[in-house]
Amino acid sequence: MKLKRxxxxxxxxxxxxxxxxxxxxxxxxxxxxxxxVDMYRLYNPNTGEHFYTASSVERIHLYRLGWKEEGVGxxxxxxSSAPVYRLYNPNAGDHHYTTNxxxxxxxxxxxxxxxxxxxxxxxxxSIAVYRQYNPNAVAGSHNFTTSxxxxxxxxxxxxxxxxxxxxxxxxxxxxxxxxxxxEPQVEDPAVNEPQPAPSxxxxxxxxxxxxxxxxxxxxxxxxxxxxxxxxxxxxxxxxTESRDSITGKGxxxxxxxxx
Length: 259
Prior knowledge:
The protein contains 6 helices and 14 strands. The protein has helices spanning 2-28, 56-64, 101-109, 148-156, 226-230, 243-248, and strands at residues 36-43, 50-53, 68-77, 82-89, 94-98, 113-121, 127-133, 142-145, 160-168, 170-173, 211-214, 219-222, 237-239, 252-253.
């Protein structure tokens, strides 16, 4: 009986040590996994807006337009029961993000564009993402961060701390941007041949031009602005008209691509 008891105690000790070791290894392991996505954070020094996206293509495009790259804001799950909605104000050139369907509906009702689900909140509520509001800002009035220190600092300089916006699977980290090097262009004599100017008709059959107009929002963009890809194809009007001609018709320039 004594030998059996000793064996039981030895087994319990081994199991306990395994659990402790396993726990320490899990806590030391990186949170990045196949079912997560990095949420990139960028800053527009001209408008004061922070922008968040899971798209590396959108990240690189904005970086090339002059946005400041701030690495990964947090790590989000690829899917959960709590979507985070992304909205855009075409008049202020500002984005907003919320898990609240009522807030989403209210912003759409007052003219914001619904851009669908941007990412998802972590169901297990691993890491809080805090939301702050700047009552003095026209654009970039909200900031989102996993850093409690950043949240508290902004509160001391006039921002309103609005609590937890959603949850991340993992905290943010530095992630230097890698801009793809464009392929070398092969000279083609045909390139120098005169090309017919694209039509500026508003039948929306044209697929290229210097600018892209949105008759609904009365905002115009550069052709390769990421906002163009999010527009309803039926609202895209391509034109080679001059900037002065377009603004003379009441259109406002997009604050992202700054045409």
